[in-house]
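Two proteins were folded this term; both appear here.
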Amino acid sequence: MSDESLNENATPDEDILAVDGDIIADVEEELVEAGEVRFDKLKKAEEILRSSAPASFREAAENTFEKVVHINRCSKVVKGGRRFSFSALVVSGDREGRVGCGFGKAQEVSECIKKSSEASKKDMMLVNITHNTIPHPVVGEHGGARVKLMPASPGTGLIAGGGVRAVVEAAGIKDVLAKSMGSNNPSNVVKATLRALEQLRTKEQIYSVRGKRLADKKAL
């Protein structure tokens, strides 16, 4: 049978359905194209807003690394009994070369942690990091604490503990060897580690102070 005979034998309802199906398909294609264009415009607008808008406090808080190093409880004997107060030592950093520590006191644990966290964010310093480790060995002292930091090869990890580990991890150092000597007071150990990180200098900084410049690397 030919196509003409098939079309002649087709009922009017079938012809209407076929035409409706073609129209629906064309409309769906137009809607898909319009939707894709609209989605692209929305996506571009979101990218422009993200690039132009400053980082919100929530994003900054998510990117900040915080660790409670030590919590101390102090009791005071009064006429009605004993009154407790708490103090906390917190280390915070962005894991990209900025780190700081804070100390806070309050009647509640959560409140003293909040105070110390805010204090640590206000007192941050920059740390020179080279290839995920420190540029050279260094020793830091504070009070009776003495901390020695040494560079390590890639894959070594953080060979440190206590307050030293918290500070180097918050700074973004991934490979380091550390040794804590003398006092084990958490506050002194943290501050001695910060003193050690303050002394770090890159090769370019040392050469610039000496009035020299690095030799250009030659291809083999």
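Next, the second protein.
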Amino acid sequence: MSLVHATIPPHERPFTFTRLAGRVDRQSLRDTHGNDRRVRASARLPPGTNEVRLASRDDQAAARTLAQAILIPADLVTFYDCIGDVTWADIGNGYFLDPASDVLLRLQDYGAVDLGADQKVHGLVIGSNGGGLSYAAGPDGSVHRTRTASLDEPELDKIADDLRQFLELLERSLTRFVVDGEPGSL
């Protein structure tokens, strides 16, 4: 099931990484205790949360408030009307798309992030890769990634023309991780 689709059939709710991972035979990568053989025992952590959470009424209300507070792309509002948040903690350092309420709180506390060198284009931080880099959505729908962990004077690279393309890149990272254990470079 693609993240790009706005609806998730009821028989696949909630969409979890575990459900998708179950479709791939990874038994050859497991020891007798079910642990991944590629990871040293001393480095293993308990499994984290890996899911796409559907939006609650509170999430939808936060998305509407966010849309009134700043110019944001329509597809981001639509996304937050359907999806509460994305948490893939076990894929590389993790991939996280924050709930609208967190995006709104960050906007209220810290303001919008400057996306352009001229500082005339502002965006919203919508998530992170778990390794300190943040994702920001511009008013034109483009998605940017910071080069460093700091948002004080961020240097950003455009990684997707719109939210749909960004979600497709996330999906490819998930698929690659399920197939060969590599999280990709998003």
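Strands lie at 15-16, 50-54, 83-88, 95-97, 113-114, 122-128, 134-137, 143-146, 156-160. Residues 65 and 147 are 29 Å apart (CA to CA). These notes refer to the second protein only.
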